[in-house]
């Protein structure tokens, strides 16, 4: 879905709900990040594009095509932050939609794990099958995100690689998980305000690696910031982005679950 300007202007996203808090970032840091940093990029962008060929175009259109320079820098920062704030899990969302969040987290993580480490797929599927037989289909849907084997694969296949890519990103930039033209997952580091859209990729998940994103809470502990923030990703949103890119949407249709009252998530 493209981000269109309203009456010629891009707007500051309103979905940053720091009143409820984010588990990995303080309210103060989120507020500054949203109301100061992002708001400045939005204002700069609106001023820069007024009366130019970029006025009235979508944010994604500008980010894909603008030459290096102030317009790209500000458009990139707006799109990147919109995606970043959009893929963070705040406690409000957690309270409202526990089942769909956890189910989609499991689905998305399984898809990523299978993609990054195909030789483990057989073992993983065997374990899932066993689990389904022992516990039942619906129980599996709720709980399978928690299977020890899956979490172990998750760490050894994806998580460590992703954190390493973030940790080794030099200077200011963004850490991304995207799909390429063949619908394969790729991890990329983008410098400054760049976005994978500029290389023909489909971005799914991003982490802000500019110092302003973590310095207030984590100072120079970049790795700790990465570990913590990856523990509060809204995988439901990542899964939705994934489904938008995939040709076969049937596999991705979001099905809200009817949870039998006898099953408690915290068992
Ligand atoms: Mn930022």
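^ structure tokens above, recovered residues below v
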């Amino acid at each position: 879905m493209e981000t269109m300007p309203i009456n010629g202007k891009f707007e500051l996203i309103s979905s940053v709900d720091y009143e409820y808090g984010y588990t990995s970032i303080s309210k103060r840091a989120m507020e500054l990040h949203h109301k100061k940093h992002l708001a400045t990029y939005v204002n700069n962008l609106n001023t820069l594009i007024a009366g130019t060929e970029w006025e009235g175009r979508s944010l994604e259109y500008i980010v894909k095509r603008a030459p290096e320079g102030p317009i790209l820098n500000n458009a990139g920062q707006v799109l990147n932050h919109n995606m970043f704030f959009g893929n963070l899990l705040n406690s409000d969302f957690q309270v409202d939609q526990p089942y769909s969040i956890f189910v989609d987290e499991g689905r998305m993580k399984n898809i990523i794990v299978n993609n990054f480490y195909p030789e483990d797929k057989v073992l993983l599927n065997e374990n899932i099958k066993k689990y389904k037989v022992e516990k039942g289909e619906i129980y599996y849907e709720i709980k399978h995100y928690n299977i020890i084997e899956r979490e172990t694969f998750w760490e050894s296949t994806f998580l460590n690689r992703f954190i390493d890519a973030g940790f080794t990103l030099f200077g200011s930039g963004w850490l991304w998980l995207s799909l390429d033209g063949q619908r394969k997952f790729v991890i990329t580091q983008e410098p400054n305000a760049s976005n994978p859209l500029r290389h023909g990729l489909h971005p799914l998940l991003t982490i802000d690696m500019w110092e302003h994103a973590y310095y207030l809470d984590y100072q120079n502990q970049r790795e700790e910031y990465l570990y913590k923030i990856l523990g509060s990703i809204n995988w439901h949103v990542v899964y939705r982005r994934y489904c938008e890119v995939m040709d076969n949407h049937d596999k991705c249709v979001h099905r809200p679950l009817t949870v039998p009252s006898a099953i408690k998530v915290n068992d």
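Residues 76 and 194 are 6 Å apart (CA to CA).
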